[in-house]
Amino acid sequence: MSKLKGRPLNAEEADELLRNWSVPNMAPDERSFGDRSTAFGTPLSDLYKKEMAEEVPVEEPQEPELPSITMAELERIRQDAYEEGLKQGHEQGYIDGFDKGVTEGKEAGYKEGLELGKTQGHEDVKPLIEEQLTGLRSILDNLTTPLNKVDEQVEKQLVQLTVMLAEVIIYQEVKTSPDVILHTLKLSIDSLNAEQEKVRIHLHPEDLELIKNSYGEQTIADNNWQLIAEPTLERGGCEVKTAQSSLDMTLKTRVKETLDSFLHNSGI
């Protein structure tokens, strides 16, 4: 650190010293050359003088003089620049507008053409579709009609088979349960409500013996029952007759009525 009079300098004193410090002259002194010369015998002093004479003074660049311009010329330049900008803007706007119009026109035309094409295509194809549907319906009807006939025939055959099975089961039940004739006789007498009238009862011979053994001779006489053997009747059924009415309670008739009622109620 620099010192002045035995003490360090402060910032202000250092700045003052730098402002007042003069740059020393670094140019060589001719007297220092003496009688010295180059290897070719040229004195150094003459060589220094020659170099100093050859130095070209550096000219400071001069600022170019600005041309003078009037207010009228300035206004004309401004107007020309405005018109040039307006022209360029108009041209660019035309180009941009044209490109945008072409693009939007293409999109609108494409959409409109697509919708029109769809509509026209539907109208053109509609008669063909109707024709194909008509032919398809005809084919399906031809296929369905035989199936419907087969279904009807199968249904009838199933009904007939069901009736036959029911009859077989009922007849078998009558053979294994002879008491059926007792219920049939009671139902017949209750239906006629003929207490004082003479009642003729036609039934199978085996059922006749069963009734005699079940009711007894005295009860049969008190009820004015006349038991008549009829071998053509099936077991379990009978025909009950009075002077005013008759009742068919044969097994065949009862089975038919029962099955007919069942078929009617089931919708067959």
Automatic annotation (TrEMBL):
<keyword id="KW-0966">Cell projection</keyword>
<dbReference type="InterPro" id="IPR018035">
    <property type="entry name" value="Flagellar_FliH/T3SS_HrpE"/>
</dbReference>
<feature type="region of interest" description="Disordered">
    <location>
        <begin position="22"/>
        <end position="45"/>
    </location>
</feature>
<feature type="domain" description="Flagellar assembly protein FliH/Type III secretion system HrpE">
    <location>
        <begin position="131"/>
        <end position="257"/>
    </location>
</feature>
<keyword id="KW-1005">Bacterial flagellum biogenesis</keyword>
<keyword id="KW-0969">Cilium</keyword>
<dbReference type="InterPro" id="IPR000563">
    <property type="entry name" value="Flag_FliH"/>
</dbReference>
<comment type="function">
    <text>Needed for flagellar regrowth and assembly.</text>
</comment>
<keyword id="KW-1006">Bacterial flagellum protein export</keyword>
<dbReference type="Pfam" id="PF02108">
    <property type="entry name" value="FliH"/>
</dbReference>
<protein>
    <recommendedName>
        <fullName>Flagellar assembly protein FliH</fullName>
    </recommendedName>
</protein>
<keyword id="KW-0813">Transport</keyword>
<keyword id="KW-0963">Cytoplasm</keyword>
<comment type="similarity">
    <text>Belongs to the FliH family.</text>
</comment>
<keyword id="KW-0282">Flagellum</keyword>
<keyword id="KW-0653">Protein transport</keyword>
<dbReference type="InterPro" id="IPR051472">
    <property type="entry name" value="T3SS_Stator/FliH"/>
</dbReference>
